[in-house]
Amino acid sequence: MLAGDATRVGDGPSAAAVARLVREERTRILATLIRVTGSVDLAEDATQDAVVRALETWPRDGVPENPRAWLLVVARRRAVDLIRREARRAGKEAEAVSLLDPAPENPESVRDDLLRLIFTCCHPALSLDAQVALALRTLAGLSTAEVARGLLVPEATMAKRLTRAKQKIAQARIPYRVPAAEELTARLSGVAATVYLIFNEGYAAGAGDDLLRTALTGEAIRLARLLAELMPDEATVLGLLALLLLQDSRRAARTDADGRLLLLAEQDRSRWDPALVTEGVELVGRALRRTAHRPDRYVVQAAVAACHALAPAYDLTPWDAVVSWYDVLLTVHDTPVVRLNRAAAVAERDGPAAGLALVDAVDGLTGYPWWHATRGELLRRLDRPTEAVAAYDRALALDLSGPQAEHLRRRRAELTD
Amino acid sequence: MPTYIALTYTADVDWTRPEYAEEMKEYNEFGAAAAAVLRGGNALYPTSTATTVRVSGGKGGEVLTSDGPYAETKEALTGFYLLECADLDEAVKVAATIPAAWAGAVEVRPVIQF
User: Fold this and answer.
1) Which residues of A136-145 are buried (b: 16+ CB within 10 A; e: fewer)?
2) Where in the numbering of this chain does the YCII-related domain appear (chain B) (predicted)?
């Protein structure tokens, strides 16, 4: 399959090319094996075994003609061995014989197995923490240690969380199934929330943070791409992918040379990734065309991001459109943070006094640093420096990442100099 | 087929009193509608009738009884149903039709089958 591939070194494909290929196929093999064996743990062990054998032998012997089939056969054999061993230990008859016959997997069943795995990992009966952990471990294929480091959780805690989640799937019989049409919308928004949370974990990480942590944005985008490939007509999925790509397009512009955080207004827009912007904006259009009645929150958030992405300069942002999209968002996702973001857009359109009145009218955000920071910024523009400093102080007293706190300290310092 | 227990948590009331007749009727309607999967269940007298039993010093030791439920909670355990369902999704679907689900909460737990 990789014959003539540029990454070939000597007689075999490069280890990196093999690793990439194996990683792409791994989730598919796992998804099928969970259906066949009915056990996440067993399927993970067997898949891991096949992955290790592929990584050992393919660089030496070449990639087999059908890598997926090869992996599936090896993983199935391993699963049968594991079941037999377990059956012998339990003194039961082996129930594994049916696994031996590797019925050819058609593309339709591979797709369905992947969907089953996604919806099982993101089942609402699992805690959000458990869903995120499973999505990264089981769907994205990270090791438990990698997931733990990415999410800033001790490895033992993460191992326990994953074990408990898999136990719950097995013992409470969370079904391995694609939801029926009438529940699909609700279940999809659960899946999207999990993927978005993973993205935000990575996005919030700063320059000094573990690279594994910042790599979570890439894992989230990979998962969103997989969802879009599997469900190309679901607005939620297209909106989610669009939102992630548009946010990620600003990655290089988000910090200055010293690693300091830059706000949208301060970013050098020539450093935004034009390919991601184009793809994201195109996806927003596709998602909007598939929005029949109730708009989806991810699609609308992506539409806001597209307004920013298409503005050649901060001053040229179409604030009218941004405020309108926030109005739409409030009809489906009315939260204090959305109200705050809308108020900030109104401040840009109608001036700081109008914005501040709306910010002050948002209840329930006194524990949210960006509410105070927004007040600080608007008070500064209104030439009320004492109150602005006090607002920044209240923001800085709350929980912020290093770069975020550094950014607010700089703003505050400009007022007292 | 797996069995689940659906524990109903609601206000700590005495279901036998006439003012709850209307609610009992709703529970009976649930029972009739879910007859195909129901494998048992009952309403409980209020927690004021509960006695918690402990034996100190291991098996055969001193029996200590105390008045009241094992755990004091805002919503009390007031009944249970046994449901035989194919999987958790099906059990949740049935549990969502128990009146306690909107009057309080229903905890669904898989029953171990030895």
Assistant:
1) bbbbbbbebe
2) 16-114
| pLDDT at B46 > cutoff 80 | yes
DSSP state of A9: B
Q: Is residue A100 part of a domain?
A: no
β-strand partners of B43 = B79
Question: For residue A81, is it within any domain?
Answer: yes
Indicate whether A24 belongs to any domain: yes
Q: Are A125 and B87 in contact (CB < 8 Å)?
A: no
Q: Does A351 touch chain B (CB under 8 A)?
A: no
Q: Span A268-286, mean pLDDT?
A: 97
Distance, CA of A77 to CA of A83 (rounded, Å): 10
CB distance B88–A174 less than 8 Å?
yes
CA distance A76 to A18: 20
Q: What is the ipTM for the molecules in this complex?
A: 0.89
Expressed as residue numbers, the domain containing A43 is 1-92
Instruction: Evaluate whether residue A109 is within a structural domain.
Output: no
Domains observed in chain B: 3-47+74-110 (3.30.70.1060)
DSSP H or E run through A224:
helix A216-230
- Cβ distance B86 to A175 less than 8 Å, yes or no, reads yes
Q: Is A173 at the interface with chain B, CB within 8 A?
A: yes
Q: What is the pLDDT of residue A87?
A: 81
Taking only the tens place, the pLDDT of each residue in B6-29 is 999 999 999 999 999 999 999 999
Chain B residues within an 8 Å CB radius of A175: 86-89
CA distance A258 to A266: 14
* Average pLDDT, rounded, for chain A: 90
| B3 in A contact zone (CB under 8 Å) | no
